[in-house]
Amino acid sequence: MKSAISQQRFNRDGEPQTYLNNGHGLRSWFLTKDHKRIAMLYLVSVAFFFAVGGIYALLIRINLLAPNGLFESDTYNRIFTTHGIIMVFFFLVPAVPAVLGNFLLPIMIGAKDLAFPKINLLSWYLYIFGAAFTVIAVIAGGVDTGWTFYTPYSSTYSNSNVLLAGVGIFIVGFSSILTGLNFIVTVHTMRAPGLTWFRLPLFVWANYATSLVIMLSTPVLAITVSLLAIERVAHVGIFDPAIGGDPVLFQHMFWFYSHPAVYIMVLPAMGVISELIANMSKKNVFGYKLVAMSSLAIGVFGFLVWGHHLFVSTQSVYLGIIFSFLSFAVAIPSAIKVFNWTATLFKGSISYDAPMLYGLGFIGLFLIGGMTGLFVAAVGLDVHLTDTYFVIAHFHYVMVGGSLMGFLGGMHLWWPKMTGRMYPEAWARAAMVIQFVGFNLTFFPQFILGYLGMPRRYATYPPEFQVLHIFSTAGATILAIGMAITICYLIWSLKKGQRATPNPWGAAGLEWMTTSPPPTENFYETPVVTWEAYDFTVVRPEDVTGMAAE
Amino acid sequence: MSEHIVSKKVYYAIFAALLIGTALTIGAAFINLHNFNIVVALLIAAVKATLVIYFFMHVKYASRLTKLCVALGFIWLFIIVSITMTDYLTRGWFTYVP
Ligand SMILES: [Cu+2]
């Protein structure tokens, strides 16, 4: 295979051919079938919802500055519900697969596009359509049930726009189902010649495992939401005991989706981290096969642990013990990943550029998030910790410390590939450190608050908790500043950033063997893979420096 | 996708087997086996379902991946039913005193 730099072609104006300048105007974007452009559409939409969800997070923190709360309790209910719904369904679930996965998966396997390009575009429109319903629900007054929509808040005693938001989530679920379907078929059928399953980058493995989970779990969410609607519209007794239903059934069904959804949110980020750690320490991931298989194991086990959300909801204690044990079991494949990433660093030539900082941040924060997961998975301890801030802190360490760190790390690693421009390294490192400090200051005090008994979703609290709440709000402010810096310099770099070479990091992987940004068809010649994953001996120096070899 | 051509004889044989299975189910219903009536009926039904899936739905001739997917569906069902029954049958074991 020739080096990417020698393959670069130019259009009539003498500009390098890229997917970005192949077609101009809104039409070329909104009717595109190019997976890379669809990824960019997703990036803009996901970033928008992240900002909205972030503003609602700040409103929560502002309310909790004073023991009596600054908003009405009802308003506060609607604020945290909106924060949860937007962050989970419109940011965390699609962020890594629909943006980074969409952009990279076909390139990483040497394909020209996903298997179903039109369905890929359809999935983005479904996302926007579903989002529109949810936005209308928020504008019309919001939802006050919490993002979990527990009955009877969402059924018998519902007094907010549950149905509207439910329709939005129903639709957006199909968006992720279509993405998952596309990924599965693509990985099975479109790998480049020579690219066997165990030569696939771990990011592909992680997205493949995620897609399986999406396909198997998301329909259950759709069914649950539909049943909620059927009960309200047709008065069939499903969740309402007065007409023969069972409210706990809702919790079973909801968590049958939503626990696997945790892995939908974190598995792709783990795939990103594998890439970051390997490429930033220039070593093959230690125990490649085990890391690949652990993704599948997490996916499978993730379906068998939903009952750990119901330890205090009339579930049989015996079953609670079984769910507790199964939840502990998920720690094994997660620990395999963390240990193997750490072992990869051993004697590697480690770079501390921003992507690596995010990678290391992920390992540290996910470790805390995962270990506290064991605390809340223990039946006895969870009776004390259920619905306290301990749980809030735990899953924010997994979701923000894990998924968000992974997403941002991946955005930095592949930003040159996606945009053709380098981001400013010093700013990026500074922003990462600010976010890291802000994040810990926000959520570490919440572990203590929860342990002391501060319940989640309360607008007010006893005065002795105020100090810890003020720490938390201060941290959220710092985190927001860090995020704002990142958004600013990334936008700045689109025009002013240094031009990127095909392989600025000296990284291994097919995406680094094409130009930055890639042409519409990804590769001018179909790559033939004769090397294993993360083989740094096939990295060509001229692709790194951008100077054609003499 | 290469289509596997199955001879008509196989289809007739399976059809006959299914009819025999139906007759057996009806016949077994007239014999009082106490609690085991349901077991016998389910066993016959399982055999019939296997025949349908294996021959009529062509799983016998499908790729290993398809077979795996079919098997997973049943493993899934087994897990869901067993977890549900675990809850249902053991709720009375411990009483929670608040
Ligand atoms: Cu869970």
Written account of the structure:
The complex is a heterodimer of chains A (550) and B (98). Chain A is an all-alpha fold. Chain A has 16 helices and no strands. Chain A has one domain: Cytochrome c oxidase-like, subunit I domain (Cytochrome C Oxidase, Chain A), CATH 1.20.210.10. Chain A has helices at residues 4-7, 26-30, 35-63, 73-108, 117-139, 162-189, 202-234, 247-281, 288-301, 317-345, 354-377, 379-385, 389-419, 425-452, 466-496, 541-545. The model of chain A has no long low-confidence stretch (mean pLDDT 92). The longest helix of chain B is centred in the last third of the chain and has 27 residues, at 64-90. Chain B is flat, with a radius of gyration of 19 Å. The mean pLDDT of chain B is 87. Bound molecules: copper (II) ion.
Oligomeric state of the chains? heterodimer
**Mean pLDDT over the residues of chain B:** 87
Largest sheet entry of chain B = none
The helix fraction of chain A, in percent, is: 55-70%
Tally of DSSP β-strands of chain B: 0
Structural class of chain B: mainly alpha
Query: Number of helix segments of chain A?
Result: 16
Instruction: Specify the helix fraction band of chain B.
Output: over 70%
Structural class call of chain A reads: mainly alpha
Task: Specify the overall morphology of chain B.
Answer: flat
Q: Which molecules are bound in this entry?
A: copper (II) ion
Our count of domains of chain B comes out at 1
Number of domains of chain A: 1
Low-confidence stretches of chain A: none
CATH homologous superfamily descriptor of chain A: Cytochrome c oxidase-like, subunit I domain
Summarize the structure.
The complex is a heterodimer of chains A (550) and B (98). Chain A has helices spanning 4-7, 26-30, 35-63, 73-108, 117-139, 162-189, 202-234, 247-281, 288-301, 317-345, 354-377, 379-385, 389-419, 425-452, 466-496, 541-545.
